[in-house]
Amino acid sequence: MTARDLAIAANRALAAAGQSDMVWGHAAVRDPDGRGIWIKAPGWGFEEIDADRMQLVSWTAGVLEGDGEPHKECHIHLEILRRRPELHCTVHSHAHSAVAFAALATPLLPISHEGALFGGEDVPRFALTGGLVRSPELGRALAETLGAAPAALMPKHGLVAAGTSAEAAVMHAVLLDRACRTQLAAMAAGPIRVWSDDAEAAAKRDECWPGAQLDAGFAYLVRKGGRP
Ligand SMILES: [Zn+2]
């Protein structure tokens, strides 16, 4: 599958996972020829993306293929992928549960399989701004916050996720949002009393989320979302 086709599949998988915020948010895949990133064009929802609604955006945020301007927040993807050459895909969404959970400023606990994605450590949070990541400087700061983690919360805004494959990046975004949703439900019902200790959380991260499981989850979402 080409990088463009992978990016299309990633966007549609995010729609199938319920991460749509009308036309906002985006997944991006590194161009294998080093020209930049394949990212959806502005003005379309995740589920509306096809080959004609994609752009190849250069490392300096210029549109090399496709129509119109790039998303203002393309710097999220450009700067994370520039900083970490081993990564192939990044996701930014305004997933509702992630935004709601981030507002509580409480640690994300490993109370579910999804919650163990972070191995018992809290999820990174981008504190510099709750506004748009619309410059290379802000993109670099967000990349620094993310570090080597699979995903990070962006309080007052959304989430960012990354992976060595489109499958991993999308699933990291999906699992973070699900972990937030599960913890919100538990906290709404009462105080949380049971969660994995560090050893169990670390073991579950490896047991529950190897690459093959991330691939399987992504494939399911692509089937659920339908092909363009
Ligand atoms: Zn955003």
Write the layout of secondary structure elements.
Elements: H1 3-16, E1 26-30, E2 36-40, E3 54-58, E4 63-65, H2 74-83, E5 89-93, H3 96-102, H4 136-146, E6 151-154, E7 158-163, H5 166-189, H6 198-208, H7 211-225
Antiparallel strand pairs: 1-2, 1-5, 2-3, 3-4, 5-7, 6-7
Helix pairs in contact: 1-5, 1-7, 2-4, 3-5, 5-7
Zinc ion is lined by residues 24, 73, 92, 94, 157-158.
Note down, in words, how this protein is organized.
The protein is α+β, with helices and mostly antiparallel strands and 228 residues long. It has a single domain (3-220), classed as L-fuculose-1-phosphate Aldolase (3-Layer(aba) Sandwich). Helix content is 40%, strand content 14%. The protein has helices at residues 3-16, 74-83, 96-102, 136-146, 166-189, 198-208, 211-225; strands at 26-30, 36-40, 54-58, 63-65, 89-93, 151-154, 158-163. Strands 4-3-2-1-5-7-6 form a 7-stranded antiparallel beta sheet, sandwiched between helices. A hairpin with a 3-residue loop joins strand 6 and strand 7 (158-163). Helix 1 packs across helix 7 (211-225), helix 3 crosses helix 5 and helix 5 crosses helix 7. The model has no long low-confidence stretch (mean pLDDT 96). Zinc ion is lined by residues 24, 73, 92, 94, 157-158. Zinc ion binds at residues 24, 73, 92, 94, 157-158.
pLDDT averaged over residues:
96
Identify the bound ligands: zinc ion
CATH fold-level label = L-fuculose-1-phosphate Aldolase
Radius of gyration over all CA atoms, rounded = 17 Å
Poorly predicted regions: none
Main beta sheet: 7 strands, antiparallel
In total, the number of domains comes to 1
The CATH level-2 architecture is identified as 3-Layer(aba) Sandwich
Say which CATH homologous superfamily is assigned.
Class II aldolase/adducin N-terminal domain
